[in-house]
Design goal:
Chain lengths: ~120, ~110
């Protein structure tokens, strides 16, 4: 079974703090993703990475950065946390299939972040 | 640009009743379609996906969905629901010209009552 783990289930931080969210997958997947999930808005893509050290912006990258130094690990960084970044953060990974888009994204359990 | 509309934000049903969760998409090119389920305090799990071929797709837990190209719809159905099906359901679309990116609907909360 594919396993995607996230470093924390719940996190409380203060405005202005630097926040690191870590995601690790154990299936040697090329692609990794960070989403945020807010009530009534569904999932929105923040960043994704298709290889080590490679990244592309998603729909809402402002206020976030990412790092992928190893294939299995994808980090989301909030340089200076703000209250509007209070949300559920979901990490996902997928393999590159024979046709782009055929691959399934596997999700971690999520990190619920509260910024005070 | 691709988009997904889930027509109902909440669907309450009684146990053993049939259910349909509606999803419409817009895309100018060929699409791949997905339904995910999220149980309370968990991540998303794939229920089923349409890539090509038969328009009726069967998934896990007795769910199925039908791809209707003329109606641009991908509705999810189950003939008889259980209490354990209570969860949030997300429809997602990926167009053939988009690299990796899934666009999700806003979700439908299915509540199954005894």
């Amino acid at each position: 079974d594919v396993k995607v783990t996230q470093s924390s289930r719940y996190l409380v931080k203060r405005t202005g703090e630097k926040v690191f969210l870590e995601c690790v997958q154990d299936m040697d997947h090329e692609n990794m993703f960070w989403y945020r999930q807010d009530p009534g808005l569904g999932l929105r893509l923040i960043y994704f990475s298709y290889d080590v050290k490679m990244k592309e912006k998603g729909d809402i990258p402002e206020g976030y950065s990412v790092s992928r130094e190893k294939k299995e690990r994808f980090s989301l960084i909030l340089e200076s946390a703000s209250t509007n970044q209070t949300s559920m953060y979901l990490c996902a990974s997928s393999n590159t299939g024979r046709g782009a888009g055929t691959e399934t994204q596997y999700f971690g359990p999520g990190t619920r972040l509260l910024v005070l | 640009a691709q988009s997904v509309t889930q027509l109902d934000s909440q669907v309450p049903v009684f146990e053993e009743a049939p259910v349909e969760l509606r999803c419409n998409y817009s895309s100018s090119v060929s699409v791949y379609l997905f339904w995910y389920v999220q149980y309370p305090n968990q991540g998303l799990q794939l229920l089923l996906k349409y890539l090509s071929g038969s328009t009726l797709v069967k998934g896990i837990n007795g769910f199925e969905a039908e791809f209707n190209k003329s109606q641009t719809s991908f509705h999810l159905r189950k003939p008889s629901v259980h209490i354990s099906d209570t969860a949030e359901y997300f429809c997602a679309v990926k167009s053939g010209c988009s690299n990796y990116k899934l666009t999700f609907g806003k979700g439908t909360l299915l509540t199954v009552n005894p």
